[in-house]
Amino acid sequence: MEDDPMKTRNVTSRSRSFRSLHKDVEGAGFTEYILIVGLVVIAGIAAWTAFGDQIVAVLESQTEQIGAAGGGGA
Q: Where are the transmembrane segments (predicted)?
């Protein structure tokens, strides 16, 4: 059986394609990480915009209660 040079070339070409695809997959993990971080930041900004005033009011109230109970620092 004689090896066809075109078949060998196609196999070699496919092998290179698979190797380069593997390298692309490694970069995809970093891209996914950046997308998730971006979504968390956007969600945080949206939550702060929606509930920021209420959160500040609750924290100020708690601070006053701690100060009134004699638990204030310096």
A: 33-51
Q: Is 8 exposed, middle or buried (0-12, 13-18, 19+ CB in 10 A)?
A: exposed
Reduce the DSSP state of residue 66 to 3 states and report it.
helix
pTM: 0.47
As a whole number of angstroms, the distance between CA 10 and CA 5 comes to: 9
Give 72's DSSP letter: -
Are 36 and 30 a contacting pair, CB within 8 Å?
no
Report the percentage of the chain scoring pLDDT > 70: 59
Rounded Cα gap, residues 9 and 56, in angstroms: 67
The string over 18-40, giving b where at least 16 C-beta atoms fall within 10 Å of a residue's C-beta and e elsewhere, is: eeeeeeeeeeeeeeeeeeeeeee
